[in-house]
Write a structure and sequence with these properties.
21 helices; mainly alpha
Length: about 625
Amino acid sequence: MEEADRILIHSLRQAGTAVPPEVQTLRAFTTELVVEAVVRCLRVINPAVGSGLSPLLPLAMSARFRLAMSLAQACMDLGYPLELGYQNFLYPSEPDLRDLLLFLAERLPTDASEDADQPAGDSAILLRAIGSQIRDQLSLPWVPPLLRTPKLQHLQGTAPQKTFHASRLVMPELSSRGELREFQASPLLLPAPTQVSQPAGRVASLFECHALQLCQHTGREHSRDKDWVHWASRLPTQEDKRAQQQRLQKHLAEHLRQTWGQLVPPPQARDLGELLQAWGAGARTGTLKGSRFTHSEKFTFNLEPEAQAAQVSDVLATSHRPEQDTRAAQEQELEALQKQLEAMNRNIEEVETNMKTLGIGLIQVENECRQSELSTAEREQALRLKSRAVELLPDGAANLTKLQFVVESSAQRVIHLAGQWEKHRVPLLAEYRNLRKLQDCRELESSRRLAEIQELHQSVRAAAEEARRKEEIYKQLVSELETLPRDVSRLAYTQRILEIVGNIRKQKEEITKILSDTKDLQKEINSLSGKLDRTFAVTDELVFKDAKKDDAVRKAYKYLAALHENCSQLIQTIEDTGTIMREVRDLEEQIEMEMGKKTLSNLEKIREDYRALRQENAGLLGRVREA
C-alpha cells in the first residue's frame, strides 16, 4: 500500500496539489490537504465545476460543511459509485480516502501528444513549477493583510499597508540639448531607483513621475484646444486643482483598463512560457465581453413588456372571481355526503355482527350433527353384533363346537404359515444383509467422490476469483500507467514492480504448497473417516450377534458404542475449536481495520467542530439580540 500511496501522491502533485515532502502515505493526510487535493483534481478534470470551489478550508464550520457537501456532489456527478458525504472530507478514513483519490486520479486527463512535445529536463520541470505557482497566486483573490489566513500570508505576504512618500525624480529627456543633454548623459545623473533614499518610496516616486509625464503628453495632445490653453496658462485655483486631479484619475483608470484589462492567464497554461504567451495575447486583445453571469441575469430577470403586462392582467382577473358562493355550496354538499357515509358505515357494522353470530351458530350445529352421526354408527355396529349373537342362541352347543373347530384349524394354519415364512425369511435376511453392506460401501464411495467434487469446485471458484482479482489489478495498473507523465524515468517503478511480482510469485508458491498439503490432509481425513465407519459397522454387527448369548460380550458392545460416541464428540470438539480460531482471526482483522479508520481521532474532531459550531451559533444569537 505504501508504494501505491507514493504513486498516487505523485499524481496529486502533478495535478497541482502542494503535498509536503514528509507526507508519504495517505494516513498522514489532513483535512486541509484532502480538500485541496480533491479541488485540484476537479479543476483539472472539469474546470467549469472546479473553478467555483476553493482549495482552502474556511474557518467557519457552516462554510466547511457547505464546501464538503459541494465536493461530495461534484464527485457523485462524475460517477463515483460509493456513498459519499461531508464526513468523507472533514473526517476522512484511509480506505475511503484511497478509493476516492484513485477514482479522481483515474479520470485525470492525459494527452500523449502534449507530453511528447514538451521538453524534458530540469529546466522544463522548473518552468512548469513556476507557471503553476503563478497560476495559483493569480487565481486567489486579494485579501486585506489583517484578514489573511496563514496560507494566504505565505502567498501574498504579511506586510501591512503604509503611506507612500514620493520624491521628485530627474529623468533624461530625448528633446534636451546642449549642457542639459551632456549632464543627463554623464555619471552625475544617478539611476531613478537610487535617487530615492527610502526603499518604501521608490514605487510611489516612479508612479508620480509617470503621472506627470502622462499629464504633459495629454497637454501636448490638447495644444490646439483654446479652452485647454487658456485653462492651463492661468494660475490654478483650488477648484481647478480638484478638477485636474479627478480628470487625471479618470484618464489613468481608463488607460490601465485598456492596457491590463485582459491580462488573465488561461487555465490551460502549464508552464511559464505558455503563461507569458497568454499574457501577451491578453494584452493585444482589447474587446470586452460580458460574463456568463451577466448574460444569464439579463435573460432571467429582464422580461419583455408584453409578458409583464400579461402577467399583471392575469393576476387582476384571478383576484376578482367570486368564491364565497361556491365554497358555501361545496361545504353543504360535503356535510350531507359525510352524514350518508356515517349511516352506511353503521349499517355495515350491524350486518357484520349479525353474520358473525350466525356463523358461530352454524359451526355449533355442524359439530352436533357429526357427533350424532358417530354415535349412531357405533350403536348400529353394536346392534348387528347383538342380533348375530341372538341368532346363534337356539343351537348353542353345536355352534360352540363349530367355533372351536374353526379356531383350531386357524391356529394350525398360522403355524404352517409361520414355518413356511421361516424357510423363506432366512435366505431373504442373508440377501438383505449383503445388499445393505453393498449399499453402505456405495454410500461411502459416493460421499468420498462428492467431497472431492466439492473441493474441486471450490478450487475452481478460488482460481476464478484470483484471476478476476488479477485482471482488475492489471486494469488498474494500466490506467495508472496511462496517467503517469511521459518524461519521468520509469526505472525505479520497474524495479518496484519486479520486486512486487517476485513477492507475489513467492506468496503464490507458498499458497500452492499450503493448498496441496491441505488437500492431502483432507483426503487422508476422509479415507480414515470412511475406514473408521466401515470398521465400526463390521465390529458392531459381529459383536451384536454374540451379545445376545454372553454378558461379557454385551458389556463389550456397550463399551464399543460409548467409545464410538466419545470419539465422535472429540472430533466435533476439534472442528469447533478450529472454527472458533478462524472466527477469532477474522475478528482480529476487523479490529485492525477499524483501528485504521481513525475512529477516535475523527470523534475528537467531531467534538471540536461541534463546540466551534455552538460558539458560532451563540455569537450569531448574540448579534441578533443586539440588533
